[in-house]
Design a protein that fits this description.
- With about 525 residues, the chain is an alpha/beta fold.
- It has 16 helices and 21 strands.
- The strands form four sheets. Strands 1, 2, 3, 4, 5, 18, 19, 20 and 21 form a nine-stranded mixed β-sheet that branches.
- It is globular, with a radius of gyration of 23 Å.
- The N and C termini lie far apart (about 50 Å).
């Protein structure tokens, strides 16, 4: 085998990491919940009858919070009102929540706990944030077959409810096999369409794409429109990791909106950002495009994690995919703002380098930054946390009425977003900086994702809604995860309820596992 062929194959291995490492999975030994909880039976506990009194009720609609009481029974909210106005059965448990906020359980519309739930069904870092429902299958990569995956979730009964999307990249690889570095034929597009329809019929909520990743990178806009129409026919939406979040950001937003317009379905732009220095300050321009689309009658929203750093694979830095070309590598590093902004994670060949920035690795090895990049890619590639975003852009997206909260992380994520997203919004952006009101922050995490998913039974505190609830201390809620310790548990969430069953209390899981798969109604 020639050295050129060897390098090409190593490059392919690095590209495959683009898909694998969007999961952001941290290494290391499993948390205590792993083996023990996996062995435990996920028995369906009976919903409790509880009267919560004197809570600050933030209902998820964005309306001002107020002090009141809430009664839950049979897994539903039975009544709510001013203090002392709600009658409860004599045997109801009573909990005084003076000084605490009671809100709908948080819905993470972009979560990557897809397979890790089976190792960590208690999902401790998710519960500690107040999450009750997660949506997996984003970025074009989903479980398959959808019906089998949802059945496995039902059997597992984790501590959160789980919905999924159909991944465009998943069905594209099934249709094209390893010969995916090209446009799809009409027959292959028809094949993908049938598979998307099968996934939607099985209960998926929409189609996701990952257009910076293989194999979606090679798809045409026409292909995406055709496949998205299959999801539209079943009432689904289109969620996209766009083709470019850096130099080609505006064109990528235009493409996403075009797909929604021509396929006639709502659009959700994943983890919206201005990804590097070349587009810093362009957040208002992105939001103006979204505003115009909605004014035209389209339904376009976005989601966002509250950090100025992203996680993917190292290969994404060089958009030309010429990983051994020094000029291409130098251009990619410069666009990122420099090698000091590129933090290496999940480098399996030399794990002792994980956590270091690319410039630090270069110095250790006596290389230039470009040489260090090429060396890592030729030795299997790595995961990457890119500290390339601008805080002002994060703030601008945070304040937008079109943007909701999501983690783009999950169980055992290396990026702090996996364990800290929702408390960080409440602590840093609400309490400390005032970028959002408390009511707006809760709305971003509840009724907005519920509306996008078409879930009318959750996301708002009202009589008849599911008793998916989070109770937190607004003065204490905070993220504790860092870029050096991405799995450190958040603080300040006092209690979490899923369908009237308490899953989190006093800083730890109760052991109850009432979660199930959520299927889109046919």
């Amino acid at each position: 085998m020639s050295e050129g062929t060897k390098r090409a194959r190593r490059g392919d291995r690095g590209l495959h990491l683009l898909t694998a490492l969007i999961l952001g999975v941290a290494g290391g030994a499993g948390a205590p919940e792993g083996v023990a909880a996996q062995a435990a039976a996920g028995v369906a506990e009976e919903p409790a009858t509880v009267l919560f009194t004197n809570a600050t009720l933030v209902d998820g609609t964005g309306a001002p919070g107020y002090v009141g009481d809430v009664l839950i029974e049979g897994g539903r909210i039975v009544a709510l009102g001013s203090p002392g106005s709600v009658e409860a059965p004599p045997d109801a448990e009573r909990r005084d929540l003076t000084g605490l906020v009671l809100a709908p359980g948080f819905i993470d519309i972009h979560n990557h706990s897809t397979d890790r739930l089976f190792d960590f069904p208690l999902a401790t870092t998710q519960l500690a944030q107040g999450i009750t429902t997660i949506v997996v299958g984003a970025d074009g990569s989903s479980p398959w077959p959808i019906s089998d995956y949802l059945g496995r979730i039902d059997a597992l009964r984790p501590t959160v409810n789980v919905a999924t999307l159909v991944g465009h990249g998943t069905v594209r690889r099934l249709a094209l096999g390893e010969d995916y570095r090209r446009s799809a034929t009409d027959a292959e597009i028809a094949d993908m369409t049938v598979r998307v329809e099968r996934g939607m019929t099985a209960g998926a909520f929409g189609l996701s794409s990952g257009l910076e990743y293989d194999p979606g990178f090679y798809s045409t806009t026409g292909e995406l429109i055709a496949v998205a129409r299959a999801a539209a026919g079943h009432g689904g939406f289109y969620m996209t990791h766009m083709r470019d979040e850096e130099e080609g950001l505006m064109e990528a937003v235009d493409e996403a909106i075009r797909i929604g317009r021509e396929a006639e379905l709502p659009v959700q732009i994943s983890h919206i950002k201005a990804g590097n220095a070349s587009v810093w300050g362009r957040a208002p321009d992105v939001l103006e495009r979204i505003r115009r689309a909605n004014d035209e009658g389209l339904d376009v929203t976005a989601d966002q994690y509250p950090y100025a750093a992203w996680q993917s694979g190292l290969a994404i830095v060089v958009r030309s995919r010429m990983f051994s070309n020094p000029d291409s590598v130098a251009k990619g590093i410069a666009a990122a703002g420099g090698a000091n902004r590129l933090q290496i994670v999940a480098f399996w060949d030399e794990p002792e380098l994980n956590g270091l920035r690319l410039d630090e690795i270069a110095r250790r090895r006596g290389m230039t930054d470009v040489e260090a990049y090429i060396w890592i890619m030729e030795n299997g590639g790595s995961g990457l946390i890119g500290h390339t975003m601008n805080e002002d852009d994060v703030d601008t997206f945070m304040a937008s009425p079109w943007v909701m909260t999501s983690s783009d992380g999950g169980v055992r994520s290396a990026h702090p977003r996996g364990a800290g997203t929702f408390p960080r919004v409440l602590g840093h952006y609400v309490r400390e900086r005032g970028i959002l009101t408390l009511e707006r922050a809760v709305q971003r995490a509840t009724s907005m994702p519920a509306r996008r998913l078409g879930l009318n039974d959750r996301g708002v505190l009202r009589a008849g809604a599911r008793a998916d609830l989070v109770i937190f201390d607004p003065e204490r809620v905070v993220d504790r995860s860092t870029f050096d310790n991405g799995t450190r548990q958040a603080e300040g969430v006092e209690s979490v309820w899923l369908g009237g069953v308490e899953t989190w209390s006093a800083g730890e899981p109760t052991g109850a596992r009432p979660g199930r798969a959520i299927r889109r109604a046919r």
